[in-house]
Automatic annotation (TrEMBL):
<keyword id="KW-0670">Pyruvate</keyword>
<dbReference type="InterPro" id="IPR026040">
    <property type="entry name" value="HyI-like"/>
</dbReference>
<dbReference type="GO" id="GO:0046487">
    <property type="term" value="P:glyoxylate metabolic process"/>
</dbReference>
<dbReference type="InterPro" id="IPR050417">
    <property type="entry name" value="Sugar_Epim/Isomerase"/>
</dbReference>
<dbReference type="Pfam" id="PF01261">
    <property type="entry name" value="AP_endonuc_2"/>
</dbReference>
<dbReference type="InterPro" id="IPR036237">
    <property type="entry name" value="Xyl_isomerase-like_sf"/>
</dbReference>
<dbReference type="GO" id="GO:0008903">
    <property type="term" value="F:hydroxypyruvate isomerase activity"/>
</dbReference>
<dbReference type="InterPro" id="IPR013022">
    <property type="entry name" value="Xyl_isomerase-like_TIM-brl"/>
</dbReference>
<feature type="domain" description="Xylose isomerase-like TIM barrel">
    <location>
        <begin position="25"/>
        <end position="262"/>
    </location>
</feature>
<feature type="active site" description="Proton donor/acceptor">
    <location>
        <position position="245"/>
    </location>
</feature>
<feature type="active site" description="Proton donor/acceptor">
    <location>
        <position position="148"/>
    </location>
</feature>
<keyword id="KW-0413">Isomerase</keyword>
<comment type="similarity">
    <text>Belongs to the hyi family.</text>
</comment>
<protein>
    <submittedName>
        <fullName>Hydroxypyruvate isomerase</fullName>
        <ecNumber>5.3.1.22</ecNumber>
    </submittedName>
</protein>
Length: 264
């Protein structure tokens, strides 16, 4: 059976890092990508980013809400932090402003690490209340919010542990505005049984990201059975974007061979 062509987008925080940020857009287009995503657009003016996208003929698929610097308490987002509500709201407003200016379909609202001394119930209640507030703002901006569960090995204390939790929050606050970002890397590390795990939350899934554990390199370098995963996505009619959020094992271009059989 011939596989249909999937739509892969390049995560420019992870791919083409051999180049300065501004040069990654043309490199992604030259490698055959039609879309890009990256966590943080905030160091650049929206007009500058729009020009880079237009010149390269690329679609901006996704950005994240602002996160703090590596090592800070906000490095994995602010959504579950009881004492950072004003900062969280400012970040959502900023994210919506950029998503709108860049025509990005998705704003990933990054969940955050539960602070020491804060109970899980308290952090989770704050998380749900914050996502509910953000959903109201996103509704009027016409941007879809995404929620992602992260694995406990890389992000201990991350507020969302499982795909089902992410789907439950999306459902509770309004699935017409909020969906699940299903990242195969995180899902494999903590949950496994990937096809069943995906199917359980499929009605809420709006975007996919891929990387192969344990090293988070490109598909084919690790433990996931990608031919079965892609065959399942094809058989079940997945037609959304698939974000390549992996660290190339050597160079970005040398590591793109895996994509050929899924794009032609
Ligand atoms: O780490 C991931 O996985 C992501 O999708 C990041 O954008 C979240 O910080
Ligand atoms: Mg991810």
């Amino acid at each position: 059976m011939t596989e249909p062509a999937f739509r892969f987008d390049a995560n420019l925080k992870w791919l083409f890092t051999e180049l300065p940020f501004e040069e990654r857009f043309d490199a992604a287009a030259a490698a055959g990508f039609e879309g890009v995503e990256y966590a943080s657009p905030y160091d650049h003016e929206p007009a500058v980013l729009s020009k880079l996208l237009t010149d390269a003929g690329l679609t901006q698929v996704l950005i994240n809400t602002p996160m703090g610097p590596p090592g800070s308490a906000t490095r994995s987002g602010l959504a579950c932090l009881p004492d950072a509500v004003a900062e969280f709201r400012d970040g959502v407003e900023r994210g919506l402003e950029y998503a709108t200016a860049l025509n990005a379909a998705f704003l990933h609202v990054v969940g955050g690490l539960r602070p020491e001394g804060v109970s899980r119930d308290r952090a989770f209640a704050r998380y749900v209340a914050n996502i509910g507030w953000a959903a109201e703002r996103a509704r009027s901006a016409g941007v879809r919010l995404l929620l992602e569960a992260q694995n406990k090995r890389d992000a201990p204390r991350f507020i969302l542990d499982t795909q089902e939790q992410a789907a439950a929050v999306a459902e509770a606050v309004g699935a017409e505005t909020v969906g699940v970002l299903f990242d195969f890397y995180h899902a494999q590390i903590d949950e496994g049984d990937l096809i069943t795990t995906l199917d359980r939350v499929r009605p809420w899934v709006s975007h996919l990201q891929i990387a192969d554990p344990p090293s988070r390199h490109e598909p084919g370098t690790g433990e996931i059975g990608w031919p079965a995963i892609f065959a399942h996505l094809a058989a079940t009619g997945y037609d959304g974007w698939i974000g390549c959020e992996y660290a190339p094992a050597t160079t970005t271009v040398a590591g793109l061979g895996w994509m050929k059989e899924y794009t032609s």
